[in-house]
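$ fold --in a.seq
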Amino acid sequence: MFSCTVQGPPEHPVIKLSGNLTLDHSRDIHAELLARLPQASAITLDLADSEKSDLSFVQILCSLLKDEDKRISFVNLPTHLLENAASLGADGLIKEITSRTEENV
């Protein structure tokens, strides 16, 4: 199961990704994010209701964070994402996303 809800104005939406952030839903996740990027100067990802993630979501995040024209921040980083990134050796990603949490921005 995967769902996406969006709150806030188009130029700074808060995108809440819920359920499984896995390969089964990667196409939907990618499409939801791509639909919001053109209008947004900043995006906040809320991952509080996500249940699990895999390499496909880590790859989506890496790609999203490469866009220097967008300010990407995170709220409610789940343990599963940090553990998954650590198991993949993505220490740089962990450092990057934790530096972009609301408490650090």
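$ fold --in b.seq
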Amino acid sequence: MKVLRTKKWIGASSIHLFFWAFTVASLIPFILVFMVSISSEDSILQNGYSLFPSQISFAAYQFLFHDFSEIAKAYGVTILTTLVGTVVSLLITALFAYPLSRPELPFRRTISFYIFFTMLFGGGMVPWYITYVNMFDLKNTIFAMIIPNLLLSAFNVLLMRSFFASTIPESVVESATIDGASELKIFFKIVVPLSLPIMATIGLFNTLSYWNDWYNCMLFIDKPELYNIQYLMTKTLTNIQYLLMKSNSSAQVGDLLAKMPRETVRMALAIVGIAPLMFAYPFFQKYYISGITTGAVKG
């Protein structure tokens, strides 16, 4: 018995040690980016990237935040589009997937096929762009970064449909129907509480997609006050002088360009763009192990 317990302890300890090592290894790239962002530009040019910077400097962040209002506006646009887009997109996906999971829906296989078809073929960028600009008039509006991504992926619809079909007990829906509950009441009072794991998963996918979206901003937005943080970062990475455009003195611009950190600014931009997402993961993670364990069928 003692030998068996020892073997179990060694096995469990080995598994825990492996996952701890894997977790630390996964954090190394993020730590490296952060360390480079707080290093001096000269040390990076001389010694390369290092987890232990020889010279600590916050010049990259001082350079980025010299005009904080611009970054604050970009953050505001990104947060607004991410919150609204994620909630509305998740709702549309769920309302689309749930009927497809019901066996009594007519032509549900045909509809599912057309959804799957969109994963293989698209209409092309030109008609897609013309539709949103000419028909919906989304040019230079905040909706241009929300509406095109509302149904982010047909894969999300099929994934949620499969979850509903395999997880929601048929007896629960039938009992609610007999009690006189409407379809919407069944969906919001029964289906959604039992589907928190898939809701959290698709919600996280949507959050990442909206937060990292710079392409729609590039296509539809010409006004700097409507730039989101990712597009602002992209413009800064491709043209590092973008943040200095408000300077009036050419001599001042030349002096700033001579002293401007370059490699460290790239890393600081990555930290500025990814840091808020770190708060999204704990919010969604707590729902992964809940929801389905609450149960609805008793007896």
